[in-house]
Amino acid sequence: MSIESSEQVLDYPLRAPTALEPPEEWAKLRQGCPVAHVRLPSGDSAVLLTRYSDVRQVLADPRFTRQLGKDGAAKLSEEGGSVFETEEAASLTEGHERWRRLLHKSFTAKRVQAMQPRIEAMADQLIDDMVRQGPPADLVAGLAFPLPVWVICELLGIPDIDRDKLAFWSNAMLNMSQYTRQEMEQAQVEFAQYMTAHIAAKRAAPGEDLLSELVAAVDDGHPLTERELMMIGQGILVAGHETTSNTIAKMMAMLLSERSRWEQLLADPSLVRTAVEEVLRFDANAGFGLPRFITEEIEVSGQKLAGGTTVICNMAAANRDEQAYERADTMDLTRSPNPHLTFGVGPHSCVGQALARTELQTTLNVLLRRLPTLELAIPSEQLARREGLLIGGLERVPVRW
């Protein structure tokens, strides 16, 4: 395939040869067409950025956010209505920085560090169940999917019995094609009803959890509104469950797909921290990318983008940029520094990245300790992608030990 001009329109998302490999077009776009015109699943037009410097420039610009409910913004999917596209999301732009400030105060390194033993205990419990049932096992169903939702329930003070409900709502609210708009809206309604009752319960009887802290928090003399608390709850669930769940599964698939990687970690578990960062950088199946709505004209890679343009920042493609990394297409578990863009950058970067890193590092440490003989039960090229969600993932990761 040749990409000669910025006038050529590509269908987006781009298809990759396997679940762990990048689309062939990425390298060609970075070199020859870094500002590419694409057609989204909805049929709407957008611009795709694949270079590290360009993606970083747009994500770091505080003027542009992912509020795709605004007039003129492209719809991502035919059904529309992803969490980025609701009027609710668009109308919360002004209050966004306020509750981000409060979340930053609550998502401290100290709080995350304090959660680490609990996360380790949860991982051990889930692995106990896998071991009891015996191999082969699916790492997605057995560990990667349940663990982050257990962590979020603990974080928000939600009872264990409601874990499954939260997992379903999380899936449905990241609709692309897997759920109808009606199912997605129903999930949002059910989640809103649940959270309204849960927030009221925390007001009446606060606990030690993050939600109790936010209910009591005051910013510039003003407490958070019910609506803001609801959106924070939704944001933590959607961002904190799906992304981490999928990344745990992809991390293990990447590390086990080439035996030398797993053996390198078994020989030197102190590499877990840099290995996790390299997993985050090297992930070719990260999903849709971050949409940004450009409200005024800017210049990117020498090209002018008019106000009213929807831009897709593909961090996974940018993380493979040869201009930003030596041996960008090689997975190096010792790579440091590693300034990848996976969590975004600037004022809108991921608030929960410290928690995500802790979950990934803890899961990897527990698996190295508990199941050193772990291996994929099928060839890595047979791993199937999860389809229909904004976030890239794997349907199953069959393993044995």
TrEMBL record:
Keyword Isomerase set for record: no
Q: Which cofactor does it need?
A: heme
GO MF annotations in UniProt: heme binding; iron ion binding; monooxygenase activity; oxidoreductase activity, acting on paired donors, with incorporation or reduction of molecular oxygen
Q: Name one Pfam family in it.
A: p450
Going by the entry's taxonomy, the superkingdom of the source organism is recorded as Bacteria
Query: Which UniProt key words apply to this protein?
Result: Heme, Iron, Metal-binding, Monooxygenase, Oxidoreductase
The UniProt entry's sequence similarity note says: Belongs to the cytochrome P450 family.
Q: What is this protein called?
A: Cytochrome P450
Source organism of the structure? Nannocystis exedens
